[in-house]
Fold:
Amino acid sequence: DTEVTQTPKHLVMGMTNKKSLKCEQHMGHRAMYWYKQKAKKPPELMFVYSYEKLSINESVPSRFSPECPNSSLLNLHLHALQPEDSALYLCASSQRDRSFYEQYFGPGTRLTVT
Amino acid sequence: TQLLEQSPQFLSIQEGENLTVYCNSSSVFSSLQWYRQEPGEGPVLLVTVVTGGEVKKLKRLTFQFGDARKDSSLHITAAQTGDTGLYLCAGAERNAGNMLTFGGGTRLMVKP
Structure:
């Protein structure tokens, strides 16, 4: 089973709203990631969690707040977003202790900020 | 910062034709992954190549890792309309921990 699930599939929110994106995997992976992808571009890394601890934050604005409640779950809390934050948000996971790092992606959440 | 250059950026071909997508870098990667992504969906892992010179086949798709582990190619034989999508290569470098460096992507359209 190489499935990563993400909810919701689509989200429309106003600039004053607070919402959360959720990601779950049951592959026993100990590294989890959030990516942002704009149309016709490759994914851009936002955050990396390794063993439930934030290990990489790619200078992401504070209106995006990640959380890793346990080894299977990853959340991305959204607050006071801007229209330019509209994008496909992808979650991925990988095994931590391997010599090569295959990442498995979820189906993504299509976010529209109005 | 490592760079992975992918070419061509866009390819439109007829069903039944062959094609090759290239991924090139001046850096050495410990492994390289190829993904295919359909609109509105997440990338799906197709293959991982690890050893220099390695060739892997997945039905009509052939993946090759360069001898020096700096480049890779994806060859599709007798393309089908179902092959349409965005193809992404992504390199992993041992000292970069869990981070992947993505190529810019190749958007493939196979017309019937």
Summary: The mean pLDDT of chain B is 94.
